[in-house]
Amino acid sequence: MATRSVPALKRLLSSRHVPTRSVTYMPRPGDGAPRPVTLIPGDGIGPLVTGAVEQVMEAMHAPVYFERFEVHGDMKQVPPEVIASIKKNKVCLKGGLATPMGGGVSSLNLQLRRELDLYASLVNCCNLPGLPTRHESVDIVVIRENTEGEYSGLEHEVVPGVVESLKVITKFCSERIAKYAFEYAYLNNRKKVTAVHKANIMKLADGLFLESCREIAAKYPGIAYSEIIVDNCCMQLVSKPEQFDVMVTPNLYGNLVANTAAGIAGGTGVMPGGNVGADHAIFEQGASAGNVGNEKLWEQKKANPVALLLSSAMMLRHLQFPSFADRLETAVKRVIAEGKCRTKDLGGDSTTEEVVNAVIDALE
């Protein structure tokens, strides 16, 4: 009787749907509690794209809620209550802040990075399916030292008509950013780290950065390490970007390299990023070029929200909500791949609201 029932049992088991989803994250008790996130809408198109993120987060019932603060680039300093909120919440979502040219007004972006010690800037530049670009197979992560270098803010007029600007490179910060880059590569199954420098000219400053990278690289024998001079790096980026994986750079070079890589991979409007320290993180559009947009974009309500939506997915992953991050990222990429709703910078004519609605419809 038992032997005769075996074929029937096999048929029964084969006809049943067997779940294939694996357990990828085991939460600790209380991990599912909604998290407060400091929100800085910013200037220009900032309120438009941060508003888009709020709409999508609400539609997907993401376990976050926002504490909003009005901060603008022409302020003399970041209000103390904003700093206090970020220190309390440990996470911030930010639209672009305009940085006035000259006039002695310091950048609030730099103030935030220094005050919160957000020493690592991370920009993920990769091709999105369905978005045509000149190069394929681009998947570059630019990790940039965020607190010193040419952006140290130490400059003065020696005599009328002569300005001295100091570039500060320290062993501590160089080792710290190099270790972050190799840790990122190791934890994300990346194969190669490339240090970008100008040590052939700035032998002491960039030489110290390069020396630090080499010392850290020796501790990660499973990850390939290479070095490239920054001018050659820019040429190689526009001719053969697929050769790069993770790039670690001093402050100024990283800003240039990240925007170049973003332009190659589809434009700054689709590149996510964030600034991270040991205790705090600020997520914003990855590449800075034109991050506050222009008045016409604001008036027509046609700003591209994709970069900040993808940055928000990074934020959800940082907050240990991986399933929500995956849902949001998948929905955004599906909308881009379908090509029906795209803003002007991506070859379409859709409004911000139309893109948001398409992303909400694509949520699983």
TrEMBL record:
GO CC, any one term: mitochondrion
Keyword Nucleotidyltransferase found: no
Subcellular location, record wording: Mitochondrion
SMART domains membership: Iso_dh
Keywords: Magnesium, Manganese, Metal-binding, Mitochondrion, NAD, Oxidoreductase, Transit peptide, Tricarboxylic acid cycle
The keyword Manganese appears for this protein: yes
GO molecular function per UniProt: isocitrate dehydrogenase (NAD+) activity; metal ion binding
Superkingdom as given in the UniProt entry: Eukaryota
Domain Isopropylmalate dehydrogenase-like: 36-359
Pfam families xrefs: Iso_dh (PF00180)
Gene Ontology process terms (BP): isocitrate metabolic process; tricarboxylic acid cycle
Family matches, as PANTHER family: DECARBOXYLATING DEHYDROGENASES-ISOCITRATE, ISOPROPYLMALATE, TARTRATE (PTHR11835), ISOCITRATE DEHYDROGENASE [NAD] SUBUNIT BETA, MITOCHONDRIAL (PTHR11835:SF42)
Role according to the record: Performs an essential role in the oxidative function of the citric acid cycle.
Family membership noted in the UniProt record: Belongs to the isocitrate and isopropylmalate dehydrogenases family.
Protein name, UniProt field: NAD-dependent isocitrate dehydrogenase
Originating species: Turnera subulata
